[in-house]
């Protein structure tokens, strides 16, 4: 029967010549318990492989051993584990833009590096751009400390740029209002004979109407004249007399 170190029993390994001895059986039982304890604790020597299980005090000692230069006690446990896990790879890129960008993403979550030649700044300066809304001002101080460790001596951290964008439908509307002023001039009639005359008008407007008085020039001949008007208005009507 195949067994591993965690389930093995020393008594099962005793040869038949001594397996029945009570003293040997007692010694095998005592040794078996100690061996099982040691076997169960052998996994503790696997440190990096168990980094997700390690408590925070052990993470601090491990960070010192691996010379994690971006370490900060204010970081969360998960952030510390990520730093330790990537420490060897980070030592290879220290002082490069890639290291600064990783630091920025660790603090802000969403960030990218803009070097001076990308935005027309002074030589060897750089900015960190993020779209995250940062309400905790201590996050900016934390980024400044970590970037100072990660950057090379030549470069200068200039600023943090926060951008935001929104998506949505934009609707635009307009109203055109047009009005006309209508003036009805007096009617002028020169009779040349006897006639029956009827006059009428209908006016519909939107703003203002000015109706002048009716003027009629008659000859000496007899005639009948009828005049009428229907006016529908909205705002203002001015009916007044003008010089005839």
Structural classification: alpha/beta
- Point out poorly predicted stretches: 214-221
Shape: elongated
The strand order across the widest sheet is 1-2-3
N- to C-terminal distance: 133 Å
What is the level-2 CATH architecture name of the domain at 94-164?
2-Layer Sandwich
Report the β-strand fraction as a percent range: 15-25%
**What is the name of the CATH topology of the domain at 94-164?**
GMP Synthetase, Chain A, domain 3
What is the arithmetic mean of pLDDT? Answer: 76
Residues in helices, as a percent range: 25-40%
Rg value: 49 Å
CATH domain class name of the domain at 94-164? Alpha Beta
Number of helices: 7
Order of helices and strands: HHHHHEHEHEEEEEEEE
Largest sheet: 3 strands, mixed
Tell how many strands the DSSP assignment holds.
10
Briefly characterize the structure:
By secondary structure, this protein is an alpha/beta fold.
Can you walk through the features of this model?
By secondary structure, the chain is an alpha/beta fold. 31% of the residues lie in helices and 18% in strands. It is built from 7 helices and 10 strands. It has helices spanning 22-41, 56-65, 77-85, 87-93, 97-108, 116-119, 138-150; strands at 111-115, 125-130, 156-162, 181-184, 196-199, 202-204, 208-211, 224-227, 230-232, 236-239. The strands form 4 sheets. A 3-stranded mixed β-sheet has the order 1-2-3. Strands 4-7-10 form a 3-stranded parallel β-sheet, with no helix packed on it. Strands 5-8 form a two-stranded parallel ribbon. It is elongated and about 145 Å long. 9% of the residues are buried.
